[in-house]
Amino acid sequence: MEPINDHLVQYLDVVFIGFNPSIKSSETGYHYANKNNRFWKILHESGLTPRKYSAEENALLLDLGYGLTNIVSRPTKAADEISKDEYLVGREELIKKLKHFQPKIACFVGKGVYQQYSKKKSIPWGFQEMSVLPHMRDFVAPSSSGLVRMKINEIIKIYADIPVFLDKNRIGKRV
């Protein structure tokens, strides 16, 4: 399976960071391509996008000031297939990307992603008190995977804090 391309440019409002691509994403080349993944619905219903985008439109998020990447590039069926070594290497690569691209917000799509990145154990949802890198805000959101047992409305409510922050701080293009 092949990794998929990041969608990153400098100074984005938000970069969404997942665990790694799914098998379906690897096959199609699109982020969050698994039909059971609720990422696109969450973005729209939280107010981050003006409509529900499809995985095939993932590159269009750049026009809204949003980027996409993962902590590990190797596609797997599930995140539990990722090794400790892959996380260590992926963490260093992610830090380099974030330092280079300098987004305003790094949104970690899953607590486990942020745990691997920050090396912290106890993590609340939402904006973190202290970010790992000084030039941006760290935001931890629930995974958009259909396997997550949290109710979709609760997940959307957490993500909805991002557009509120962007509006309040007059950052980015609002939908």
Question: Layout of helices and strands, plus pairs?
Answer:
Blueprint: E1 14-18, H1 23-28, H2 39-45, H3 61-64, E2 66-70, H4 84-101, E3 105-109, H5 111-118, E4 126-127, E5 137-141, H6 152-159, H7 161-168
Summarize the structure.
This is TDG/mug DNA glycosylase family protein. With 175 residues, the chain is α/β, with parallel strands linked by helices.
Verbal overview:
Residues 12-151 form the Uracil-DNA glycosylase-like domain. Keywords: DNA damage, DNA repair, Glycosidase, Hydrolase. It is built from seven helices and five strands. It has one domain: Uracil-DNA glycosylase-like domain (Uracil-DNA Glycosylase, subunit E, 3-Layer(aba) Sandwich). It is 34% helix and 13% strand. It starts with 13 loop residues before the first strand and ends in a 7-residue tail after the last helix. The chain has helices at residues 23-28, 39-45, 61-64, 84-101, 111-118, 152-159, 161-168, and strands at residues 14-18, 66-70, 105-109, 126-127, 137-141. A five-stranded mixed beta sheet has the order 2-1-3-5-4, sandwiched between helices. The mean pLDDT is 95. With 175 residues, the protein is of the alpha/beta class.
Largest sheet: 5 strands, mixed
CATH superfamily (homologous) name: Uracil-DNA glycosylase-like domain
Assembly type of the shown chains?
Answer: single chain
Instruction: Output the helix-strand order.
Output: EHHHEHEHEEHH
* SS summary, helix count: 7
Name of the level-1 CATH class: Alpha Beta
For the biggest β-sheet, the strand order reads: 2-1-3-5-4
Which of globular, elongated, flat, extended, rod-shaped describes the shape? globular
CATH architectural group: 3-Layer(aba) Sandwich
CATH topology: Uracil-DNA Glycosylase, subunit E
Helix content: 25-40%
Compute the gyration radius: what is it?
A: 15 Å
Protein name: TDG/mug DNA glycosylase family protein
Enzyme class: hydrolase
Pfam families: UDG
Domain Uracil-DNA glycosylase-like: 12-151
